[in-house]
Amino acid sequence: MAIEAMYAKIQGNRMLQGNAALSLDKVVDVIRYFAAADKVASLYKVKLMKMIWYSDQLSYKRRGSAITGLAYQAMPVGTVPAGHGFIINLKGIPCEEVDMGKHMHAISACRMVMIILHLMMGIRKSWILLLKSSEI
Fold it and tell me: What is the Cα gyration radius of the chain?
């Protein structure tokens, strides 16, 4: 599995993984928990990665170890798990892709951040307006 090969390089350094060994079963369990939660609406990938990070950080603060054993990296959209592209494809994760439209390449980085924030907050109408104004 690609994510296991990526984590093999850091497997001995538990500080990078929140004082916990990588457990892909726990990663899948955490994702399924969030996907089934009534209070979580529109669970897009960015929001999911933030929620996993927050769960690991809160667990580390309270118990001294993370839940998943994932290592995290800084990205323009914030902190995400290393290998985040592979996490969505793990066996047992309910996932569907959403087509964001053919004009996404023309949207500026600022507008992209606004769209992501609106999607995370569930404000779809604003996203449509942002997309239409960026198509000009």
Answer: 17
* Tens digits of pLDDT across the chain (136 residues): 588 888 887 877 777 888 898 999 999 999 989 888 888 877 888 888 999 999 999 999 999 999 999 999 888 878 889 888 888 888 877 666 666 555 444 444 444 555 555 555 554 444 344 444 443 3
CA 44 to each of CA 12, 14, 19, 116: distance values in angstroms, whole numbers, following the listed order: 31, 29, 27, 9
What global pTM score does this model have? 0.67
The DSSP line for 46-92 is: HHHHHHHHHHHHHHHHHHSS-SS---EEEETTEEEETTHHHHTTSTT
d(CA 56, CA 52): 6
* Tokens found for residue 77: 């959209």
Contact by Cβ (8 Å): 127, 119: yes
